[in-house]
């Protein structure tokens, strides 16, 4: 809801005729100003002048200043309750010509004069509760359009608020809590032209009703006399006064009406009364035939009374009753005779909760031929065994709902409900039923849809036949009910082909067979929380994990919270394509398989709170988070590092899904720098920048290493490499020996060597010229003087058959070496 705090630019008029007050704390929305609880002494004068509704209740106003209010001339609703207003200023309605609702309850208005409400003809609602009214003249006469007048708790000693007929539009009149002891014949004659339908006269010290006192209220439909102390025959006289009236609804709560007799309601026989409330009257007896006048009654409440005996005459005459409330209405050990309810042919609902019944007999409920709902919760103290006779009296009723919650039942015998062929809902919650269900208990419940056996102190055991009699079941609740394991074969749920809700929670079940649930193709809701299913999904189990969710292809809600689960098999959820709501809170899950949720294409809500999850990997969560509307993942010990959480924080900050407690429940556990800080404060930027930096780092360090390696290699082995390189290049390019004929060669070989190697040449090569008759060409010996060295080299190489390299390190360093190599016609 949009709420604007009004910031005031106005100024306090110091010299004007009135002294207003700034409405600093007022909230103004849609032409409505709420200035309640502001300790105001004056009505603020600086609110928008186009207000239609102003609330100045719960302040310290002494007057409703007409001069200030005049600024808000469009007001329709003025709430000024809980102040110290002593008078209504004359001219109020001149200043507020559109006023329709005026609430001035809990003030100190005393004298109400005729001129005070003059011009208030538009007023429809006037609440003057808790003032100290003293009417001077006929102050209400101008209120021609008033529909609701509340003058409760004003110390008035009469209901006569005017002499002449007036308030022709009045529909509701409240006179509760005044000092009215007697209703005189003419006390309502001032209303004989109006159409009052609702009259509240609660908490009056009423002693006497004079004949004809209610006659002017011809259209009265609803009369409330709660807490009005009963004096002898008051209700009887009231009934007489209401004879022939339009009364439909009579509330007589808490009037100390301790007994009713066959004459108490006699006057009401000429009415069409449909609803009567007689609760909390301490009533202990109902005389035979007391209600026989109320043939049109449909709702009767007798809650909170103290009856000790209901007989077959108690309810005679109530042939149209549809609902009878008897909660806490009977004292302990009270008697309900056979056929007590027989007159209630049309009764549809009977509420007998919190009533200690000891004697349900074969005919207690006989004759309730329209009964649809029977509630006996917290009742039936003595009834520990339900037999085929307990509810036999309901065999002729079209009963649809039977509430036996906390009815102290210990044993269901065979055919316990066999007569209840129309029963659709049976509640046996919170009892002490302790037995093996054979299936015979529920025989005859041919229409049953909802069976609730929850909270039976874990004393019920199931057999394959347990539910064979109730194949129509749609909803079966077994929470905190089952004793021992569920590893019965075949599955007890096999007959329940229409089941859509199964609650097996809080049972400590640890193990059951893979096909316990597999036949429940229609199942929509499965509750398995608070069991012990961790072993079912353990991969180290002797037979591997049990896939107990197979076949539940229509499942939409699955609750597996608090099962001690520490792993989920990769394909555990593979058949759950309809699942919308998955809850796994309170387990000890830490790592999840990639894609474990990826078959859950319909998932809308995921709850993984209170696990041991440290990281939220993309591969596990991205498929499922994409379509999610609610995620609950709080209270896990998150590891706030780029690897573990970066992707998730990014999702969290951009998602449209609802993430309850986003700021408070997602707390980092590690690393120490983030300990106890909200995950949302994790700085994802650092992770984003890391990516290019990493690449850059790898690239540059590789380059440096390669360069270093190359440099070192070249430095120490470069000559070798160059040599082999040349050899390889020459071989591949296929240089051949240039064969130009023998005659062209002057030398057998041209010898290339570094100058430093000359000694070696002298010692090892030159002797060969003698011994083997070789002719070598040596640069410094055979070059023609006067020609350039380059020319000589080229010339002499041509004239040599072969070229001999004296390959040494020094040669390769020699700048001429490259030249030789380049001009070398063939590898030598
Ligand atoms: C204000 O008025 C608008 C339109 O009349 C309505 O939608 C909105 O709910 C109102 N707000 C409040 C707080 O009443
Ligand atoms: C009421 O008055 C305020 C300012 O005084 C103005 O912002 C607002 O639009 C007016 N509302 C209407 C319905 O005239
Ligand atoms: C009384 O209210 C009706 C509509 O409720 C209206 O037409 C009529 O003018 C009002 N009468 C006076 C006197 O304001
Ligand atoms: C008048 O005000 C009182 C006190 O706020 C309230 O209990 C009562 O219901 C109001 N009367 C009507 C008719 O609304
Ligand atoms: C009500 O009280 C006034 C005085 O306040 C008294 O004159 C009048 O007689 C009393 N009316 C009844 C019916 O007691
Ligand atoms: C009320 O019951 C009494 C007996 O308890 C009986 O004498 C009397 O006739 C009954 N009155 C009516 C109106 O039935
Ligand atoms: C009760 O209802 C009937 C039928 O609707 C009607 O004829 C009769 O006048 C009503 N009685 C009173 C007192 O309103
Ligand atoms: C209740 O069961 C007994 C046998 O256990 C049988 O004799 C009796 O007829 C049954 N009563 C009803 C009402 O079915
Ligand atoms: C059960 O309901 C059917 C119709 O739904 C009705 O015909 C049948 O009479 C009812 N059974 C009893 C015992 O009232
Ligand atoms: C059955 O009774 C219990 C206890 O009074 C109550 O909480 C529950 O709502 C009732 N069930 C129905 C369906 O009325
Ligand atoms: C799932 O529900 C649909 C529609 O109700 C139904 O046709 C289908 O047979 C159900 N699947 C199984 C396995 O029962
Ligand atoms: C998301 O929902 C759409 C339709 O609502 C569906 O087609 C799609 O398969 C879903 N994607 C995932 C990953 O669940």
Automatic annotation (TrEMBL):
Residue span(s) of domain TIR: 745-828
Keywords: Glycoprotein, Immunity, Inflammatory response, Innate immunity, Leucine-rich repeat, Membrane, Receptor, Repeat, Signal, Transmembrane, Transmembrane helix
Spans traversing the lipid bilayer: 696-716
Family annotation (SUPFAM superfamilies): L domain-like, Toll/Interleukin receptor TIR domain
Leader sequence residues: 1-17
Main localization of the protein described in the UniProt heading: membrane
SMART domains named in the record: LRR_BAC, LRR_SD22, LRR_TYP, LRRCT
GO BP of this protein: inflammatory response; innate immune response; toll-like receptor signaling pathway
Keyword Disulfide bond set for record: no
Any GO MF annotation of the entry: transmembrane signaling receptor activity
Pfam families registered for this protein in UniProt: LRR_8, TIR, Tlr3_TMD
GO cellular component, one term: plasma membrane
InterPro entries per record: Cys-rich_flank_reg_C, Leu-rich_rpt, Leu-rich_rpt_typical-subtyp, LRR_dom_sf, TIR_dom, TLR3_TMD, Toll-like_receptor, Toll_tir_struct_dom_sf
Places the protein is found: Membrane
Membrane topology note: Single-pass type I membrane protein
Family under the similarity heading: Belongs to the Toll-like receptor family.
Database matches in PANTHER family: TOLL-LIKE RECEPTOR (PTHR24365), TOLL-LIKE RECEPTOR 3 (PTHR24365:SF524)
Protein name (database record): Toll-like receptor 3
